[in-house]
Amino acid sequence: MTRCFSFIAAQNSWYRCSFKRAGLKSSTTDLGDGTIMHCWIPKKHDPSKPTLLLIHGFGANAMWQFNGVIPHFTPKFNVYVPDLLFFGESYTTRAERSESFQAQCVMSLMEAQNVTRMDVFGLSYGGFVAYSMAAQFTERVGRVGLGCAGVCLEEKDAESMEVLKVTTVEEVVSVLLPQTPEKARELVRWSFYKRPPRMPSWFLWDFIEVS
């Protein structure tokens, strides 16, 4: 479905302007072996401030998930906000797909930015990546915050919770990476405590096509 005007593309443009106003700039780093990482980085890194790395979860690019908090963090931290592989402008031609590989690529990105020490916050899937970074790079990762990330969840825990029950990888993908408005609404039902009152199909199609 092709539209002359895209609300989602317009929102992306607004978020880019918002990130720039907060003191960040867009940067793309070639890590080699067909891996490209995009990241929002400080326009000028201040050595007197600690570094805070924000790692997004499933959804669109990182801007959508952290735009509301960036202005609160940039006065006190050097803030770095990467797009994980296969989100936003980051991608790889390599076959690896694990959160361990994502963590290694994010750390390689930070090394390319000459950042040697950082605190990390990971949201949802990003929490698994943050946890993996802390486990692999203990000397470089300081404080770690995890939001909505069940890194310690065991099968027995799921039995007492209302969780999405699936039997195949395809079922998981169909919900986490929705390709229809119906699946997008299902994802919202599982991931939002306070859900939007209305989600028109044309808006969801726009989000799917742009994101």
Descriptive notes:
Strand 6, helix 5 and strand 7 (141-147) form a beta-alpha-beta unit. This protein has 211 residues and is α/β, with parallel strands linked by helices. The chain has nine helices and seven strands. Helix 4 (99-112) packs across helix 5 (125-136) and helix 8 packs across helix 9 (201-210). The mean pLDDT is 91. The chain is globular, with a radius of gyration of 18 Å. Strands 1, 2, 3, 4, 5, 6 and 7 form a seven-stranded mixed sheet that branches. The chain has helices at 7-21, 62-66, 70-73, 99-112, 125-136, 155-158, 169-176, 181-191, 201-210; strands at residues 24-32, 35-42, 51-55, 78-82, 91-92, 118-123, 141-147.
SSE class = alpha/beta
Described by strand count, sense and barrel closure, the largest sheet is:
7 strands, mixed
Poorly predicted ranges:
none
Indicate the mean pLDDT.
Answer: 91
Domain AB hydrolase-1: 50-149
Protein name: AB hydrolase-1 domain-containing protein
InterPro entries: AB_hydrolase_1, AB_hydrolase_fold, Meta-cleavage_hydrolase
Organism: Salix suchowensis
